[in-house]
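I hope you will forgive my troubling you with a question about protein structure. The full record is reproduced below for your convenience:

——
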Amino acid sequence: MALPPASRLLVGLALILARWDDRVRSRRALSRLDTHMLRDIGLTDAARQAECRKPAWAA
């Protein structure tokens, strides 16, 4: 049985908010990496800074 439109909207919104929260947490963890760890994953400090400056809704 399909969900009513309002329920589908709320589920969709919850999924979007969860995705944004995941991005915020990932970027926060990325911001804490030192230069050696960044090198290990193939990122420069400039790339990290650019990623960490993005808002939650930006992929």
Notes: The chain has three helices and no strands. Residues 27 and 53 are 9 Å apart (CA to CA). Residues 27-59 form one domain. The first helix runs from residue 5 to 31.
